[in-house]
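Example 3.2
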Amino acid sequence: MIRLHDFNRLDDAEAAAVLRPCLDVDRWVAGVVAGRPYASSDELFATARAVANPLTGAELEAALAHHPRIGERAAGGSAEAALSRSEQATLTLDEDVQRQLAEGNRAYEQRFSRVFLIRAAGRSSAEILAKLHSRLANDADTEDQVVADQLRQIAMVRLASAVST
């Protein structure tokens, strides 16, 4: 974690490296970096939310490429993999839940041709399973909007753990 004052003083490449694990979308990273210096974390978060809305279809797909399936622990030593493992750490994954998540993930991927994405931090396994099943009924346009919202939520959770006041 880096303090906001220190984040403001980083060169652009260093600041981008702090942000990229939060949301790996070039336009978002560049927009948040360009908004510096931030007088407060509220100002940082307002800029981060504004730049992330809307996310294009290409940006959604690029960002999703870095997310593991829900219920699977991200492999690797990257900052993004560590964040994903931390976000899913509170999930209770007994054998039945793992089976249901695997089946739901397959159904979602068949329907939408991408990984199911949900902000896992602060959610129970039961809540995630319910959301997974309910989102299978969405049409593609609605699901694009839901996924974009989930990416924004994940980015804000991660930004809060990356930069403090």
